[in-house]
Amino acid sequence: MTSHPAHSRSFLFTTFEAGGVVAPVLVIAAKLARRGHRVRVMSDEANRSEIEAAGVSFVPWMHAPCRADRSRQTEIVNDWDVTVPTDGLLMMIHKIMCGPALAYARDLVEELRREPVDLVVGSDFLAGVFTACESLGQKTVLLTSQISLYPVPGIPPLGPGFRPARSDEERAFHAEATCGLTGLLDQGLPSLNAARAALGLRPLAHVLEQFAYAPVHFLGTSRAFDFAPDSLPGHIRYVGPQVGPVAWAQPWRSPWPPTDTRPQIAVAFSTTFQNHAGVLQRIIDAGERLPIRLVVTLGGTIEPEELRAGTGTALVHSAPHDALMAASALVVTHGGHGTVMRALLQKKPMLVIPLGRDQNDNAARIVERGAGLVLTPAATVAEIEQALKELLGDDRYRSAAARLGARVAAEAENSPLADELEALANPTSPARARRASVAWTRDHRIQAVG
User: What is the pTM of this model?
Assistant: First the structure.
């Protein structure tokens, strides 16, 4: 039996299988476990092995959606089929965030009755978790694994990759987009309020009010990377990217001899299926035109036989990204937050080809900082070839990536998250000492009020 020090606290993290969402949770969960705390993680069965490898206890979802593996056949949010970008978010709202809110709430209530905890750490994608915590009076906080999904004053709303507003016209457009985003989220309100009614809670006027139950919202990204304003609402705190080794990454050895001096490029796309074999093929074809070596990690969702690779390309199911990127001149990626953070920690410039979700917004931040280029998924082989040439031949991209990477690394190394969670889990800390309420102005922009 594991012994715990007298000051030990108990934590329950809640997440779900969605590519880069899980890994940051395991980084902080493992850190707390090493400090002697009791830590459990509720997630999909697909994550059992990596959660247990992190040295924490695994709890599966029982009533809520629960993927058995990471294969494309078990994907719940099939957003690669949508033709309108907002339809992808609506799919997430109905299939994960709000649609099964009662199922997630039931699982959490049952688990907390089985074994209470000092603090629940919830995901910004799982409204039902906060419904359950509210119904029980359970202390909880919100932890993102990326830039904020929800509107934050002074930060462009998520969407097609907005850059910072530089005029009154752009600010007005961002305000309108914020209205649209909050309206989309409220498409899940009937399901969320049904869950609340089942747990004896009053109905809400907006979905975001449910997430406001958490007194602190931790942003698991870098302030230097994000379009962070000079001041933030008091309940929102940057805690740096939570990046660590991935348990399922396989060892990799270069097939090329040490005498091969061609620059190596790491191609790292999503570990969730986004129907991206066609994009990967065009990257491979572009690379074959240049004196370079490509290492393409397939993430377990694209099979090698789906692609045609020449002698200048190595296809692998997975590889340790840190080591692979360290040995590469640049990174070609879809722009998932975890992959972008790893590339920046290795100070590598990027060619970002976003496929959806938050990837356009991550790409906008890379381009704004001069640390890379962005192309659309429809980019031709010639366009990709030209972008690779530009990134390899212009030192300004490498210098910008190095500067930004150094700042991101400092935030990751000095993250206050573990200390903050320990303090909040202290039984003497008030359950809602810094509770954030949500005030809605007439144009539906969110403002945090004390």
Answer: 0.91
